[in-house]
Design a protein that fits this description.
52% of the residues lie in helices and 11% in strands. It is of the alpha/beta class.
């Protein structure tokens, strides 16, 4: 059977590289592409899709939002999350949201192909580090951290603010208005009980939340 995949990433060069890796390994394969969450969701109407490879950081709707939508509309469709973020920060979150696996963009091509093959076979791809984190989260109730109270979008904004981006730059990155970003920033500071961007930056560095 020829696998039919949907690759969702807003960077054309990244899509091209992943597409080539998968096309060579899974030949023949049908690989559709989407550069945003909205575009991905419109392609989900194709009943022939066998799996989705989804970037977690997208303009507009976040990858986590898209993942949750997929779980609602296509609950049996496997989704492999591909991200630039380290596994310890996002893997547990996306697996709990229904992903079949999590790999970083630094993953070797052979591991990416293995993850996709397992997903197409109806299995999950979890690295030892992710499994350890999942087991640890279930076995030991870890203390709640200030950023655990943030929504997906608030967490995105928090990381961008903490990395030194301006409101305008964040608005462009996330395809939001500057006013909306400012509202998110205020909400983040309030939820995390912080008074300034400098305090937020220090927290993000100390907790290794930045790339």
């Amino acid at each position: 059977m020829t696998p039919h995949l949907l690759l969702v990433d807003d960077h054309p060069v990244v899509r091209q590289g992943i597409r080539q890796i998968l096309a060579d390994a899974l030949d023949p394969a049908i690989i559709d592409e989407a550069d945003s969450g909205e575009a991905a969701l419109s392609l989900l109407e194709d009943a022939g899709l066998d799996a989705v490879i989804l970037d977690i950081t997208l303009p507009g709707r976040s990858g986590l939002d898209v993942l949750r939508d997929i779980r609602t509309t296509r609950p049996d469709l496997p989704v492999l999350v591909l991200s630039m973020h380290p596994a310890e920060e996002f893997a547990r979150l996306v697996v709990e949201a229904g992903a079949s696996g999590y790999v970083t963009k630094e993953t070797a091509p052979a591991q990416l192909v293995k993850a996709v093959r397992l997903m197409l076979a109806g299995r999950r791809y979890l690295t030892p580090e992710v499994i350890e984190d999942l087991v640890g989260a279930g076995a030991v109730s870890r203390p709640s951290r200030p950023h655990d109270a943030l929504s997906d979008r608030e967490y995105q904004v928090m990381r961008l603010v903490a990395s030194g981006r301006t409101i305008g730059q964040i608005a462009t990155t996330l395809s939001l208005s500057a006013k909306t970003v400012s509202t998110y920033r205020s909400r983040v500071l309030e939820k995390m009980r912080m008074a300034s961007t400098a305090e937020l930056m220090r927290y993000a560095i100390e907790n290794k939340l930045l790339d």
